[in-house]
Specification:
Layout lengths: L3 H8 L8 H17 L24 E7 L5 E3 L2 E3 L4 H11 L4 E6 L5 H13 L5 E3 L8
Parallel strand pairs: 1-4, 4-5
Antiparallel strand pairs: 1-2, 2-3
Helix pairs in contact: 3-4
């Protein structure tokens, strides 16, 4: 007697799904997006920076310190005591000795708070300490 189901199984071509090209494409897309992604550092708060006609773009700001309108100091998305700026900058400079410090002060913050933070950065050993400003609109 002829077994029909066994004959069908023998005659049926096995279909294979080759996913190697799909995996290759996923890895290529992953590499593409990683290479083209810009990783920007943020201070952790929104600051209304003052404008300056002579403001220049600084691409290699590695240590960002923010001062908000209430003179609170922020570094690495957390609030720090203004007296602890020196210790935090020393720790950041130990990780990256050639790091530049940029103080991002709000328009409404006091000059004394900015000076205190900049002074702490210089005492910590930072060679390049800058104050952030925005370029005026229309220029």
């Amino acid at each position: 007697m002829l077994n029909i189901s066994a004959a069908r199984r023998r005659n049926r071509a096995t279909t294979e799904l080759n996913i190697a090209p799909l995996i290759d494409m996923v890895f290529i897309l992953l590499i593409f997006f990683l290479v083209n992604t810009s990783f920007t550092k943020e201070t952790g708060i929104d600051v209304n920076r003052p404008t300056a006609a002579t403001a220049a773009v600084k691409n290699k700001a590695t240590i960002l310190i923010a001062i908000d309108s209430a003179n609170r100091v922020f570094m690495d998305h957390r609030e720090i005591d203004p007296r602890a700026v020196r210790a935090n900058v020393e720790r950041a400079l130990a990780e990256n000795p050639e790091g530049a410090v940029v103080v991002v002060a709000d328009k409404a913050s006091s000059t004394g708070a900015a000076i205190q933070v900049m002074d702490g950065c210089r005492i910590a050993g930072a060679q390049q300490v800058s104050l952030a400003a925005s370029v005026p609109q229309g220029e």
